[in-house]
Amino acid sequence: MSGNKVGSAGTLERRDGPLPEYALYAIRYATREAGRSSHFMGGDRHDGPMPMDYYVWLAVHPDRAVLVDMGFSAEAAARRGRELLCDPIDTLAELGVDPQAVRDVVLTHLHYDHAGNFERLPQARFHVQEAEMHFAAGRHMRYRYYASGYEADDIANAVRANLDGRVMQYRGRAEPLPGIVLEPVPGHSPGEQAVCVHTRRGWVVLASDASHYYENLLRRRPYPAAHHVDEMLESFDRLLELAGGVERIVPGHDPLVMQLYPPAAPGLQGRIARLDAEPAPMPAKPARTGRPAAGASSEGKVSASAGPGEASSAAAASGGASS
Q1: Within-domain flag for 1
Q2: pTM, whole model, 2 decimals?
């Protein structure tokens, strides 16, 4: 994928000369234990450890820095039994970005692990699909299945920011900034959006929770936390159309990201990866057996349980619509 096209679907016409090229980073800020059966609708007959990592993403250009999602707070991590590895907002400083100066934040959706920390970014505008704002503050939140994926304070903060004129809401594809394209990929949530970022290697598609793991996408196995399964499956197809190949797609929670992409700098292995670099070849059978030995690039943990608001084959039926 290169030039000004996002895959073979739809052309992004040039506005004012060549598109900017962003440096693009994945920041791994938290992890939790999980098993394979919790990540695939219908479970998995070969159940075993399969860790879940949590990311925010940062696109950096000399003219601007664009944060994609905001993670969750230490308080939310404690309530939900997550291992917080670093503060996702403070970590921006390690990449030379002052959180107080961030002007644009793209929210792929408003689940708790993506839409916390509003108050930490006082100068930012927030870019979100209108369908997601409506759903997160709408009538379906009286059902535990849906509400468990959200934090009430996060949604209240989103509404406050909107009343303050700082929330940009879109109905469909949008190009809020040069070299940044937002594409609806519903299914996991009504207003899920992928973020297409123009980099030195062409367009990179941040799938977020449109595909939690590479395996969800490549094997067309939906994640259990789904608003509409049919839309989730169609969004898998859309991601591949946008990217032109899986090597340009970055899933939302897969520890493989830290194995496939190089660290942003020495000492940042397993913490911050450089997504504008070409990835290593994907292993035919990825090993997901727990925390790797010291010095390995991924530091994910694995566990077989899912807490409140988490997806598993049981939670899909009884009450969990998040990650």
Answers
A1: no
A2: 0.87
